[in-house]
Design brief:
The complex is a heterodimer of chains A (237) and B (491). By secondary structure, chain A is mainly α. In chain A, 69% of the residues lie in helices and 0% in strands. Chain A has two domains: 39 residues, no CATH class; 177 residues, no CATH class. Chain B has a domain of 216 residues. A two-stranded antiparallel sheet of chain B has the order 1-2. Classes of the chains: A mainly alpha (237), B mainly alpha (491).
Chain lengths: 237, 491
């Protein structure tokens, strides 16, 4: 009881006039959270999911990790669109303006050394995660985030993409994930199937191809988001 | 082949968007976007034709059968909404060329058209898909691109309004996703057709009811249902003119479609009729019509005035949904179509004024009606349609809405609909007064009529307002067919 009466006081310190409003908001939000918690706690176990369907069709999916099978095959279309969402996020940031100038002091010896050690290692780990995704937890999104971490580390040390890369080559790298995914989907359609209908014998190879391109794009996109704007307008012809 | 058209409708703009983003500056990005939207309207027209003559279309993505694969499932309802979205896009794009060149910095133009195409992809995707999680993904695509598009407005307030919309839109999307998760946990399916079959067994569970509430609030935020409309006025007021035209005529309409689909197809009728959801819709609709219209009267910027009017018009649609009767839903669908036409025409005309004088504040537009007669004419006819004058599309909407209210003896609703029209007369009257009866300002004297490329698309929509006010076969026919498919029965 005592605890409860203390709570609003700490809020009042910030803004006296808004205190009752904030208190009301806090009560409403707690009620919402409690209701949601109650709803989640009363969930059945085991849940009546689609896992049996997935298990039954895992053999024809080209991979043995059920998560990868759902992401890249059974619901590949959602993943394709998610890559579009990621690209769109960057497009939104870029439409706001050019990346701010880099003003930080050059990195100290520790950061410098650490980056020299870690960056190649991270790229290696990303490659491993990409490969292992076919039969164990891993895959394009995990690999891409590790790759992005390498990129962010490099950006922190003051490294910037050269003028040669920040134009068309960068844009192509960013769009590669979505591009390869769509091209694979459409080619399969032209060959007589439906969009993204992989023939079972090629499914594994196609998924790896899509994931490889996606890894590259996800890593680059996340690192480019860290820049906070378009790279210098530079020599774009 | 017929099924592929439904897929191409979404995939063509999706592929075109990254291509447009890497195109060089100049008019090429616009030209590609134009061709894509024309293709889309062609596909959407063929799709509606196919559905009306051949019945439901189903397309299994990746060749995996639903419920664990994703399915496109198109009947008269989606086909109708998809045609509205694609049609508005195709009318907006010719208009965009000059307006965008004036309002958007040159080096951002390829990104602008790319985001616009992605927004179109998202909106069309929501209408096409039969999978509730897929709706969420498309909702994200359309929302993210809207935030980017709005932030490109010329004034700095565009940034804050885009940010405000981003926060509220993300909350809406999260609510929707939580709801979908809760429902999946009890039914084990994401396919809407499958949900229709499985939901009646579990509909009594608290989890499902909570999921229903979360989904409804999420969608209500997206469609700017009063009092969750707070993001809309600023977003519409500060976005570039083309973005306002496109979003005002399509985005909220698609959200209304999602609500209709979920309420009347996915969730069992007996459940929806038993909850207080429909009463809440009627209350929110009535409050929206009256309060937003009064707000509109006090606006000093024409774009903000029309934005508040949009909140009020959404109130009419939600009122129709709240009646939960065949006539009510038909009225909501008809108004969905007609409101796209009237707001499209009005925002285009205002965009033409902004093109000439660079602003749309009441004091900036004094007397411009005499300098820009064609633009003024478009505003007059668009306003008449908004008010619901016989002979315009708006009259048909009001007619069906009033019939739906009378059917249930809802006299208060009838009075509100008529009172809302009176308020509309007041706020559009303010615009007309400023445009025609006030002396021209110094800067306005040099203004000339807007270029043909802006006027022609505006007048296409103006004529549509008159045409669909006289010939109701397409709108009412399709809306009635769609209502039958949604499964609404008169209680």
């Amino acid at each position: 009881m005592k605890k409860k009466s203390n709570k609003p006081k700490s809020i009042t310190e910030n803004g006296e006039r808004e205190a009752p409003f904030r208190l009301l908001l806090a009560v409403l939000l707690s009620a919402l959270a409690a209701g949601l918690g109650y709803a989640v706690l009363s969930l059945p176990s085991p849940p009546p999911g689609l896992s049996s369907h997935v298990a039954a069709n895992l053999e024809t999916s080209g991979v043995s990790n059920p998560v990868t099978a759902v992401l890249l095959n059974f619901r590949g279309y959602d993943t394709l669109l998610e890559l579009g969402v990621l690209l769109l996020a960057l497009l939104g940031v870029w439409s706001l303006g050019v990346a701010p100038e880099h003003h930080e002091p050059p990195p100290g010896p520790v950061l410098d050394m650490l980056t020299r050690l870690l960056a190649p290692l991270l790229i290696l780990v990303a490659g491993y995660l990409l490969w292992v995704g076919a039969h164990a937890p891993g895959g394009a999104f995990q690999a891409g985030s590790v790759l992005a971490a390498a990129g962010v580390l490099l950006l922190l040390t003051g490294w910037r993409p050269g003028a040669g890369f920040s134009g068309l080559p960068l844009r192509i790298t960013l769009a590669a994930g979505l591009g390869v995914f769509v091209v694979v989907g459409v080619v399969l359609m032209l060959l007589g199937g439906r969009l993204l209908e992989y023939p079972p014998s090629f499914a594994g190879a196609l998924i790896l191809l899509i994931e490889a391109a996606a890894t590259l794009s996800i890593g680059t996109t996340l690192a480019a988001l860290f820049l906070g704007g378009r790279p210098e307008a530079g020599p774009r012809r | 082949m017929g099924n592929n058209i439904s897929l191409l409708l979404v995939v063509v703009p999706l592929i075109a968007a990254p291509v447009v983003a890497v195109l060089p500056r100049g008019r090429l990005p616009w030209a590609v976007a134009l061709v894509v939207t024309f293709l889309c309207v062609l596909f959407a027209g063929m799709q509606l034709w196919g559905v009306l003559n051949g019945g439901m279309i189903s397309y299994e993505l990746g060749g995996w059968a639903p419920p664990w694969g994703i399915e496109y499932r198109i009947d008269a309802v989606n086909a109708f909404v998809a045609l509205i979205v694609a049609g508005i896009a195709a009318v907006t794009l010719p208009y965009a060329l000059l307006s965008v060149e004036k309002e958007i910095p040159e080096d951002q133009i390829p990104l602008f058209y790319s985001a616009l195409l992605l927004c179109l992809t998202g909106l069309l995707g929501i209408t096409q898909t039969g999978d509730i999680f897929n709706i969420f993904v498309f909702l994200e695509i359309s929302s993210l691109s809207s935030y980017a598009l709005i932030s490109l407005g010329r004034k700095r307030q565009a940034l804050t309004s885009a940010y405000q919309y981003l926060i509220m839109g993300t909350i809406g999307a999260t609510f929707f996703l939580i709801g979908v998760g809760l429902i999946y946990s009890q039914t084990g399916t994401l396919n809407m057709q499958d949900l229709t079959i499985r939901l009646p067994e579990v509909i009594h569970l608290k989890t499902v009811n909570t999921g229903f509430a979360f989904i409804m609030i999420g969608v209500a935020l997206k469609l700017a249902l009063f009092p969750l409309h707070l993001w809309l006025p600023n977003a519409y007021a500060y976005a570039p003119s083309v973005v306002t035209v496109f979003l005002a005529a399509t985005a909220t309409k698609v959200a209304v479609y999602v609500m209709l689909r979920l309420l009347f197809t996915v969730f069992p009728d007996s459940f929806v009729l038993a909850t207080h959801a429909k009463d809440l819709f009627i209350v929110a609709g009535i409050a929206g019509i009256i309060i937003a219209s009064i707000y509109a009267i006090y606006q000093r910027s024409v774009k903000r005035l029309l934005a508040y009017s949009s909140v009020a018009q959404i109130g009419y649609m939600v009122l129709g949904i709240g009646f939960a009767s065949a006539t009510g839903v038909t009225a909501a669908l008809i108004h969905l179509f007609n409101h796209a036409l009237m707001k499209g025409a009005l925002f285009m005309a205002v965009g033409a004024i902004i093109y000439r004088v660079g602003a749309c504040h009441m004091k900036d537009i004094h007397g411009l009606g005499r300098e820009m007669p064609w633009t003024f004419g478009a505003i007059i006819i668009g306003s008449m349609s908004l008010v619901g004058v016989p002979g315009t599309a708006g009259f048909i909407s009001k007619w069906y809405l009033v019939s739906a209210a009378l059917e249930q003896g809802a006299w208060i609703s009838v009075a509100v609909i008529l009172f809302g029209s009176l308020l509309a007369v007041v706020y559009v009257g303010k615009v007309v007064e400023a445009l025609y009866f006030k002396p021209v300002t110094e800067s306005g004297r040099s203004a000339t009529e807007a270029p043909l490329l802006l006027l022609a698309p505006t007048w296409v929509l103006v004529f549509a307002n008159i045409y669909f006010g006289l010939d109701t076969e397409l709108t009412v026919g399709v809306a009635e067919k769609a209502t039958a498919i949604l499964g609404v029965v008169n209680p």
